[in-house]
Amino acid sequence: MEDEEIVYPSKIDWWIGLIMVGVPLIHLPLGVMVMMKGLILYGILLIFWGLIIAAILSTLTFPCRYTVSSSNLKIQSGLVTDSFPLSKIEDVKPTRTIVASPALSLDRLELKLSDGTVRIISPVKQEEFISRIKRAI
Questions:
Q1: pLDDT tens across 70-88, in order?
Q2: 101 with 121: CB under 8 angstroms?
Q3: What is the distance between the terminal CA atoms of the chain, rounded to a whole angstrom?
Q4: pLDDT tens digit sequence for 106-115
Q5: How far apart are the C-alpha atoms of 24 and 54, rounded to whole Å?
Q6: Rounded to whole angstroms, what are the CA distances from 121 to 16, 56, 58, 107, 129?
Q7: Which of 10, 42, 44, 53 would you label with 1, given CA atoms 20 to 30 Å apart?
Q8: pTM for the full model?
Q9: Cis status of the peptide bond prior to 63, with omega within 30 of 0
Q10: Integer Cα distance of 22 and 70 in angstroms
Q11: Which residues, 6 or more positions from 17, have their beta carbon under 8 angstroms from its beta carbon?
């Protein structure tokens, strides 16, 4: 029998989504307005920077998900992936910390690992996620 994996996408707060979409997008109308004023190069640069910001945010953020198997937890945020055995988790508790982490919501969970490190995540269905983790550890 294969090891069943359950994927929990990150919960996304509306305002975080708005910032992540709005910051790159605002460069488009600003760039067009600047070009209409005759400053073509500056307008192109504004639009270009908006595209660069969008690309960076996308590759570092999407997808943001947590995959739980019977023995491992894989945390993925864009191109960055972290994986470790569930046996390393000593404690799971809710937190609202603003520490940078692969979490798109402030409704977060703090995972304390046996090596002293902490991982902050924000899965949807947190109660189900916590229950699954606690059964495995």
A1: 899 999 999 999 999 999 9
A2: yes
A3: 21
A4: 999 999 999 9
A5: 5
A6: 15, 20, 18, 9, 11
A7: 10
A8: 0.87
A9: yes
A10: 39
A11: 104
Q: Which amino acid is at 50?
A: G
> Measured on CA atoms in the order 10, 14, 16, 20, is the torsion positive or negative?
positive
Dig out the tokens for 14 from the structure: 């509306």
Give the H or E element holding residue 46. helix 40-61
Best CA proximity match to 96, nearest among 117, 110, 77, 76: 110
Closest C-alpha among 25, 79, 34 to residue 54? 25
H or E stretch covering 27:
helix 14-36
- Token pair, residue 44, equals 């192109």
Give CA–CA dist 13/3, Å, rounded: 31
The pair of structure tokens assigned to 32 is 């067009």
